[in-house]
Amino acid sequence: MSGVNGSSQDVDIDLGRIISAVWERKARIIGATIVAAAVALVGTSLMKPSYRGETRLLIESRSPNLTGGEGTPQANDPILDSLNITSQAQLLQSTDLINRVVRDLKLAELEEFDPAAQSLFPDPLVLIGLKQDPMTLDPEDRVIQEFREKLQVYPVENSRVIAIEFSSHDPKLAADIPNKMAEVYLQIQSSAKLDTHSETAKWLEPEIASLTQKVKEAEGKVADYRSSNGLFQTTETNSFSTQQLNDISTELARVRAERANAEARAENVRASLKAGRASDTLTDVVGSQVIQRLKEAEANLQAQVSDLSTSLLEGHPRLRGLRAQLAGIRQQIDAETKKILASLDNEAEVSRLRERQLMAQLNGLKADSAKAGEEEVGLRALEREAAAQRQLLETYLARYREATSRLDGNAAPADARIVSRAVEPSEPYFPKVIPIVIVVSLATFIFGCLIVMVIELFSGRALRPSGVREVEEGEVVAPVDAPLPAEPVAAAPLPFHQMQAEAARFDRPAPAREDVRTTAEKVRAKVVGEALAREVEERSDAIEAEERSFTIGSVAHYLLRHDIPVAIAISPAGDEGSAATVMLAREVSERGSTVVLIDMTGSTCPTGLMADNPRLPGITDLLCGETVFGDAIHRDRLSDAHIIPHGISDPDRAMRGADRLTMIIDALADAYDLVLIECGPAEISGISRLTRDETPEIILSVPGFKDEDVAKLVVDFEGAGYRNLLIMTEAGDRHSPRRGRRAA
């Protein structure tokens, strides 16, 4: 290590020195990069190209629908389950399937799939025991192992597709092998279905024979039980006793209706006769033929009596005879009416007798039906057993017919189909010559640079004391606490004889030729350090003189040097002072710092000087909540400074939200190096509402003011408790330099 490392002083990494060291060795690094690129190019050109083919299978239910209904696949079909898709992908990698592909394509005869058997030289890893000797395995196992290394099977994400990829040095094999694997897979799946149907048919044959005998026995028991208990059936649902009971119930209802009708008619005739009403108003009487003939005779006699009464006297024998005949006919009508009443009574009585007989028969049938119902309980049990055996037999017969119909190979397709067959690739997928050469070149270049950096760090040449940094050749910057010099101090490299003299001055032997560089750096640091001390002293005097002035530049320098985040500008002179504040913001921006000016004036002078449009949204809109930060901040048209204009909202309404102003200022202070608030000719009492800081930085923009007026302002502000005051006059220095910040 160098002497810098050996001391107890803290050291820093000299980035400039590291970059210089890399630049000095650029020829070696570039040469190594070119050599590595050439080796990579030759190596990739000599590599045997590998080709890749891909076949894709879609897993779906392909069972034929033989029932004639719609056979749309269901979402919960186990064939379409995600676990089943993964299982099918594993089945495609099974040893049995690979063995069939190897045998069909005769891959064991190819050197690519059994390189160990064709190799003339033993594997060095096998000789030193780091790898198992492949010749100890069976030839079939070696081929399968090599096959698996070239095979890649995976389910495509969010789909029911399985991709089969295979890489080979032969482009034809790269396409044939995945296609063959898909075909063998479909054959295996179809054969599995055929085996299932065949086994199902073999199992169903004896079961169907046994069930046929059981159904015959069960139906025989039902017939014997029915005949022995007299449970004959007239229909599929009614027995003989039930049918009789239904018929008698129907007849009984009919007889009761007839009896009620006859009784009602007889009662109607009886009531009419008792009341003395005319019999020709009764339906049963009028409907009698005898009554009708009597009524006709009565009408004829009445007509004759009426006709003769006009020409004969009342006592005439003919009139008397006619009236006597008329009275006899009416008596006959009454007698016939009574006969009709008696016939109605007889009809009602017959219905009553028929009703009694039917009731007796019905009661007997009820008893027989109750007994038959008890006996039918056993019959229904036998019928259920027979029906269950019959239904099971029919189900087995349907399954057997379906299984036997699918014993043909074409009737049992696999639940998958090939949706994309592999084609013979025209370009190899490995090696990619250009990408490999580029990657090797970049890696070599980066590795070479890292080696040079590590050598420089461990040799100590890239380390320096923590107070000094080397920017360019001959430029040294002072320690952190010292101000920066205005211009770099040039220190030319010393000749070798001057290095010897300088070394003799420090009682050290002259450096050897190989240590010239290290000694030159040490001597240069000493010489430049002495020049730096003088430059720092001159620079400090210049800074102090600049800070004692009241120009815009001096105020900007002070704000930046002391990292003041927020400054409040008061302009008693009105727009002239506001214009000076705008110039201050532009000065700070030109010095490389970010600054934003907030226009809190009533005249909107800063807005008119900096913004393109005086009607832009600004601070009043922010306080009223009518705009957002991004829309309120605008760029100065003449510099990189930013401005928040006065805004277009009502100022009185905006001042009601003045409590939000401190939050706005804090947010801006986090984003900008300096937040400059121009308040115009504001009163001292209103400053406290602008910031939470107890002693904010106040800039008094007083261009054209006399010393007495400036002094009075300073006294007023200090009396109000504001002691961090900055005086800013015109751009030129109109006042003589004073000692101290508050000399006014």
Total count of strands? 15
Number of helices: 24
Which range does the strand content fall in?
A: 5-15%
Rounded average pLDDT:
76
Instruction: Walk across the major sheet and give the strand order.
Output: 11-12-10-13-9-14-15
**Helical proportion, percent range:** 55-70%
Describe the global form.
flat
Q: What's the story with the biggest beta sheet? A: 7 strands, mixed
Catalogue the unreliable spans: 1-9, 68-73, 467-517, 731-744
Rg from C-alpha positions? 62 Å
By helix and strand content, what is the structural category? alpha/beta
Q: How far apart are the first and last residues' alpha carbons, in Å?
A: 57 Å
Write up this protein:
This protein is α/β, with parallel strands linked by helices. It has helices spanning 3-6, 15-24, 26-46, 82-91, 95-105, 115-118, 124-127, 139-150, 171-228, 240-275, 283-286, 289-308, 317-405, 433-459, 496-505, 516-547, 552-561, 575-590, 605-610, 619-624, 629-632, 651-655, 661-671, 707-719, and strands at residues 11-13, 51-59, 151-155, 161-168, 416-420, 463-465, 469-470, 476-477, 566-570, 595-599, 634-635, 642-644, 674-678, 697-701, 725-728. Strand 7 and strand 8 (476-477) form a beta hairpin. The protein starts with a helix and ends in a 16-residue tail after the last strand.
Can you give keywords for this protein?
24 helices, 744 residues, alpha/beta, flat
Topology, pairings included?
Blueprint: H1 3-6, E1 11-13, H2 15-24, H3 26-46, E2 51-59, H4 82-91, H5 95-105, H6 115-118, H7 124-127, H8 139-150, E3 151-155, E4 161-168, H9 171-228, H10 240-275, H11 283-286, H12 289-308, H13 317-405, E5 416-420, H14 433-459, E6 463-465, E7 469-470, E8 476-477, H15 496-505, H16 516-547, H17 552-561, E9 566-570, H18 575-590, E10 595-599, H19 605-610, H20 619-624, H21 629-632, E11 634-635, E12 642-644, H22 651-655, H23 661-671, E13 674-678, E14 697-701, H24 707-719, E15 725-728
Parallel strand pairs: 9-13, 9-14, 10-12, 10-13, 14-15
Antiparallel strand pairs: 1-6, 2-4, 2-5, 3-4, 7-8, 11-12
Helix pairs in contact: 2-14, 3-14, 5-8, 5-9, 9-13, 10-13, 12-13, 15-16, 17-18
